[in-house]
Amino acid sequence: MSTSSPMLVFRNVSVRTERKKLLLDGIDLDIPGQGLYGIIGPNGAGKSSLVRTAIGLLKTTSGEVVLGGHPLSSWPAHALAAHIGYVPQQILSYWNLSVAEMLHLRVAQIPGDLIEHCQIGHLLERRFTTLSGGEQARVAIARALAHRPRIVFADEPAAHLDMPHQHLVLRLLREYARTQTVLIVLHDLHLASRYCDRLALFAGGKLVASDTPARVLTPEILDPVYGVSTIQAHVDGWTFYTVRDDIACP
Ligand SMILES: Nc1ncnc2c1ncn2[C@@H]1O[C@H](COP(=O)(O)OP(=O)(O)OP(=O)(O)O)[C@@H](O)[C@H]1O
């Protein structure tokens, strides 16, 4: 399939839990065959549910997810595992493995440039469970990219990272997205505006807007969704976002 065709398509996708709670509500979205695609929105908006549905961890109640031109439901599990990389929101390891052992579960030969780019060379012999949150996040990103998947899902990979490592990881994912598809959940709107090619804004399980960062990150669109009055500051060509302090958070 060419990089110009969509890599991932949601066609009128709704997802309900067994107790009938609506997690996603009629989502129509095309994710291109390359580029860094940001998913933003308030807590509980449905961002993780979208990612979990895209990789088959949540089943659609109606509508269809199409991955690489084929219905997600038709993908054999081993082919799906080879095609995608996933950085979950909560990174868990149930075994007392070293970082090198964890990565070797994915690939026989760990790419040296990936170790360098994720800055995890000094962590390879450490037990994963003893790492700090930021160190675990960098290992999780290396693990997600190690087998060169066609599409990567990263659910808040920047959440535990300090400022330099946030940019390190965003640059790494943007570089990867030059030829592949990367879908990333972000809360930091500055990072979203600076690194993402396109953004999809979610609220209450619905897709509110899907466009370039400049077109989505406007007070007219953000304020009703976040229930606050946003301010944008422009410094050195970058845009930074915050809220006025004279209003109550929702
Ligand atoms: N299995 C489930 N059963 C019941 N409710 C669920 C389930 N999974 C998610 N939810 C609820 O659905 C809503 C969307 O959850 P989701 O994790 O997709 O939000 P999110 O946008 O990723 O939020 P956050 O920014 O807080 O991580 C939340 O209210 C959540 O509590």
TrEMBL record:
ABC transporter domain sequence ranges: 8-229
Alphabetical list of SMART domains matching this protein: AAA
GO molecular function per UniProt: ATP binding
Pfam families linked to this entry: ABC_tran
Domain of life according to the entry: Bacteria
Keywords tagged on the record: ATP-binding, Cell membrane, Membrane, Nucleotide-binding, Translocase, Transport
Role of this protein: Part of the ABC transporter complex HmuTUV involved in hemin import. Responsible for energy coupling to the transport system.
Protein name: ABC transporter ATP-binding protein
Upper classification of the organism: Bacteria, Pseudomonadati, Pseudomonadota, Betaproteobacteria, Rhodocyclales
